[in-house]
Design brief:
The protein is an alpha/beta fold. The protein contains eleven helices and 13 strands. Helix 5 packs parallel to helix 6 and helix 9 packs across helix 11.
Length: 336
């Protein structure tokens, strides 16, 4: 029976990871600072779904608090750390940069240090498709260069990958970075477009459609994200014996380090996406077509060959099916 430290346990992905692992009999210590970036009531409602599950303990803790995090790690013996806590959101980073520095940089460094000084448990951490930034070479591969972020959020996630590699190299800490592509589904984040669109359409309010709808996203259903995470927990990063220092592959290393894309490999046009939502909600969307926003990219598209080779799995849930599950949950949760 494994014992896992799960950061961001009240978050969208964190909650679903906890639920899946608890069903499998895993012991989980979940931490979260329950900040008010979005509705704290939704975060608490997620925790309420799992708080009484056998093997689950929750502690309100901020990863930027190095002393408290270090004490927790010193007093427990973890088989793995799944690090999902972060300050999320691209646009929010334009107006609240300090939140990203504190959580995504200072907090991540604290996680690495806590792992380093407490038995080197394998670390899986959330990165993001945002790291690909200005690159228009699609589909995005983990072997691509990611040196041109277009938002502070993306820059912090790229920094996480660099810091993780350094700790893997220096201390032998197994580190696996997970580049998530536009995750959606029940219990999702209210700051995401699919959530805001659903909320606005049902309330009869206009939705803001950026770049006049000429955008594509590789929407990835939450269950597929969780399946990949659970399989990767059982395959900690190892040194790649074939890694070539003359032609270095950014996705692997002579150190125990790996990076994987987790995406659905089927980019969907934003207007087509809205059309699916309209059909599921049986409502027409009042669209306000707006120009491109700073920090956004036109298209995302995941190459998941590395993930498929490693765990014999790749996301596969069709968008219409995933959105149907989300809208059913939304109507039930908000009683609309």
């Amino acid at each position: 029976m494994k014992k896992i430290l799960l950061t961001g346990a009240a978050g969208f992905v964190g909650y679903h990871v906890a639920r899946r692992l608890l069903q499998a009999g895993t012991q989980i210590v979940g931490i979260d600072n329950l900040n008010d970036y979005y509705d704290v009531g939704l975060k608490q409602a997620r925790l309420d779904q799992i708080k009484d599950a056998p093997g689950f303990r929750f502690q309100r803790l901020d990863i930027a608090d190095a002393a408290s995090l270090g004490d927790l790690m010193a007093n427990e013996s973890f088989d793995c750390v799944v690090h999902l806590a972060a300050q999320a959101g691209v646009r929010y980073s334009l107006t609240h940069p300090a939140a990203y520095i504190e959580s995504n940089l200072v907090g991540f460094a604290n996680i690495l240090e806590a792992c380093r000084h407490n038995g080197l448990p394998p670390l899986l951490f959330a990165s993001s498709s945002s790291v690909y930034g200005a690159s228009e070479r699609l589909p995005w591969s983990v072997s691509d260069n990611v040196d041109h972020p277009v938002s502070l959020y993306a820059a912090t996630k790229k920094s996480n990958e660099l810091l993780a590699h350094a700790y893997a190299h220096l201390y032998g800490l197994p580190c696996t970075g997970l580049r998530f592509f536009t995750v959606y589904g029940p219990w999702g984040r209210p700051d995401m477009a699919y959530f805001k669109f659903t909320q606005a359409i049902l309330a009869g309010r206009p939705i803001e459609v950026f770049n006049h709808g000429a955008m594509e996203r590789d929407f990835t259903y939450i269950d597929d994200i969780i399946e990949a995470i659970v399989r990767l927990i059982d395959k900690p990063a190892t040194s790649d014996p074939g890694w070539n220092a003359v032609q270095p592959d950014p996705a692997s290393s002579s150190a125990p380090y790996r990076v994987y894309n987790i995406g659905n490999q089927q980019p969907v046009n934003l207007l087509s996406f809205i059309g699916i939502l309209e059909h599921l909600l049986d409502r027409r969307a009042d669209m306000r077509l707006l120009p491109m926003q700073p920090g956004d990219v036109v298209a995302t598209y995941a190459n998941v060959e590395a993930l498929r080779r490693e765990i014999d799995f790749s996301p596969r849930t069709p968008l219409d099916l995933g959105l149907a599950r989300f809208t059913r949950w939304f109507r039930d949760y908000y009683r609309v």
